[in-house]
Amino acid sequence: MFGKKKHPPIRSLIAQGTVITGDVSFADGLRIDGEIRGNVVAAEGQSSILVVSETGVVTGDIRADLIVINGSAHGPVCAADLLELQPKARVEGDVSYKALEMHQGATITGKLQPILPDGVADKVPLKLASSNG
Question: Residue 28 falls within a domain, yes or no?
Answer without folding.
Answer: yes
